[in-house]
Amino acid sequence: MPFQAVASQRLFQQVAEQVVGLIRSGELPPGTRLPAERDLARKLGVSRPVVREAMIALEISGFVEVKTGTGSYVSDGSPRAGELGDAGPSAFDLLAARRIIEGEIAATAAEMARPADIERLDQALAWYRQESLKGEDSFEADRAFHLGIAEATGNPVLTRTMELLWGDMRGRIFDRLGELTKNSTKLRTNMADHQAIRDAIAGGDGHSARQAMQTHIANVETYFLMDAAEDGTTTQTRNATGGTSRR
Questions:
Q1: Mean pLDDT confidence for 66-79
Q2: Does CATH place domain 11-74 in 1.10.10.10?
Q3: How many Cβ atoms sit within 10 Å of the Cβ of residue 45?
Q4: Residue 71 pairs with which residues in a beta bridge?
Q5: Element (H, E) at 66
Q6: CA spacing 20 to 30 A to 67: which of 35, 109, 212, 235?
Q7: Helix, strand, coil percentages in the chain from 3-state DSSP, rounded to 5
Q8: What would the DSSP string read from start to end of 71-115?
Q9: CA distance 107 to 205
Q10: To which CATH superfamily is domain 91-224 assigned?
């Protein structure tokens, strides 16, 4: 297939637009299975996260159908004359920013947190653990825990920064990746990660709090790169300071 390497600015959007061009030209007719993400990433000279996000952007706009366990296909009803819609910010860019910012926020919270702050984190953890929690409520419980950490620093600018980051996480790419990779193993990992972060903050251990937060976000990133709805897979925690290269 005549794929071409792309430039480094807004990579996932450029990859998606290149696929749209091939669909419109007839090079990729309806029903065509697109190359595997790793193969497509190699052809285009980009990372797998970029390709994953491009496929989500194409799915959201109706050009591609992502089928669990089998791959991505050109949609039978692909809008050949349609436009590639705005899928929101890159989920992996958000995670990279969170790994840096929230790691330092957690370390600061470990130095500044009062008993009332720890109690607030415990309440958020209890909310997140509710078995009946789904969808919007699950997101809000997760958000409450992370915002509670920022509030524990006593710095309103850090709290506002966290609010902005979590606002961007309502983007369509982040939401769809969350849906595709939602499973019980991921939920248990998140719960264990949250508990480790809480314990480090409560213990006043800034170094451990930073590492626990960075590990947590690296785990989210790992799940976002798994096949859709993959379950029972052991998370391979990455080096918290390294993460995934996007170039």
A1: 78
A2: yes
A3: 15
A4: 67
A5: strand 64-67
A6: 235
A7: 60, 5, 35
A8: EEEE-TT--TTS------S-HHHHHHHHHHHHHHHHHHHHHH--H
A9: 7
A10: GntR ligand-binding domain-like (1.20.120.530)
* Nearest CA-CA partner of 51 in 1, 100, 6: 6
- pLDDT in the model for residue 76: 83
Spell out the domain ranges in the chain: 11-74, 91-224
The 8-class DSSP code of residue 227 comes to P
Tokens representing residue 182 in the block: 């939602």
Question: Residue type at 63?
Answer: F
Q: Which pLDDT value is given to residue 130?
A: 85
Contacts of 186 (CB under 8 A, 6+ apart): 223, 235
**Quick one: tokens of 211?**
């590492």
Q: Residue range 126-148: average pLDDT?
A: 83
Instruction: Let me know how long the chain is.
Output: 247
Q: What is the pTM of this model?
A: 0.80
